[in-house]
Design goal:
Elements: H1 2-16, E1 32-40, E2 43-51, E3 78-82, E4 86-88, E5 91-93, E6 96-104, E7 109-114, E8 130-136, E9 139-152, E10 158-175, H2 178-206, H3 211-224, H4 228-240, H5 244-258, H6 264-283
Antiparallel strand pairs: 1-2, 2-3, 3-6, 4-5, 4-10, 6-7, 7-8, 9-10
């Protein structure tokens, strides 16, 4: 009896208390969820929306009234995310996820990006969070039964994002800086290589072994990135090898760089390196 009572209480809690296994009710929706993602150069752009159908209804000026805000989809507000900063029809927009709205009229549509990405429809739109607003001109298309977002005119640095539904469509041009992104990615790979070489050299130093290999590794790391940390490791390796004159010269280089990289970590390391310099000077 006690076990049955415990089971009843457990099931009641599982039903009434939200948890990882019960985040939301699962049911089919009339306007089904869709996502379209496009990589332009090295920048990912993702549109998440729900797709209403025409179903024989009058859409523009009727189901979607003119001069009123529309969520550009159904159910939750449509969102568009950008992995990097972009330019949209000449307007800059920072990387991030935005809710997307339009205000259709017979002659032009107002486009709105809002920084609150999690909202239902247009009911609670905070205009103060609108980060980008501009207008585009709609144009006629063959019948499109289900709302569709599509990327067209793909190039290395740009693409058009098109919204198509019923007999109308709009689009705007998204531009990215692929060259700058490539430089950032390449620099990150290079710095990672420097960090791996320096990490290997430091491991050898801490274990007092393979010091010649450690010196070769740290020299390669310095060739990639001549940072205070890398020169600091080199000075200590040279000191461990009892090559004191070279160790002092390496320490001087490290301390010179440290003046430009000052922070709590480098300040402490610089103080310790200065003490080692005095020891090496006496040991020469």
């Amino acid at each position: 009896m006690q076990n049955r009572l415990f089971l009843i209480i457990f099931l009641a809690l599982a039903i009434s208390v939200p948890g990882a296994a019960q985040e939301e009710a699962v049911r089919p929706m009339l306007s089904q969820k869709a996502m379209t993602m496009q990589r332009i150069g090295l920048t990912d752009i993702t549109v998440t929306y729900h797709r209403p159908g025409v179903k024989g209804r009058a859409i523009w000026g009727k189901l979607v009234p003119y001069n009123e805000l529309w969520r550009a989809g159904a159910n939750e507000a449509t969102t568009i995310s950008f992995s990097d900063n972009v330019t949209i029809n000449g307007h800059r927009l920072k990387a991030g996820t935005y809710s997307f709205f339009v205000r259709p009229t017979k002659t032009n549509w107002q486009i709105i990006f809002n920084s609150n990405a999690k909202q239902w429809g247009t009911y609670f739109l905070d205009k103060s969070k609108n980060v980008l607003t501009f207008s585009v001109t709609p144009y006629s298309i063959p019948h499109q039964e289900w709302l569709l977002y599509d990327f067209t005119d793909l190039a290395m640095n740009s693409a058009k994002l098109e919204l198509r539904w019923d007999n109308l469509a709009i689009h705007f041009t998204i531009r990215v800086n692929t060259k700058k992104k490539m430089e950032e990615v390449n620099e990150a790979y290079v710095l990672k290589a420097s960090e791996q070489l320096a990490g290997a050299a430091l491991t050898y130093l801490e274990h007092h072994e393979n010091l010649k290999t450690a010196l070769a590794d740290i020299n390669r790391a310095i060739a990639i990135h001549a940072s205070f940390e890398n020169w600091n490791i080199k000075a200590k390796i040279l000191g461990e090898l009892k090559r004191y004159k070279e160790a002092i010269r390496a320490a001087d280089t490290a301390l010179k760089i440290q003046k430009k990289e000052k922070n709590a970590y480098t300040n402490m390391e610089a103080w310790q390196l200065s003490r080692l310099k005095k020891i090496w000077a006496k040991a020469r």
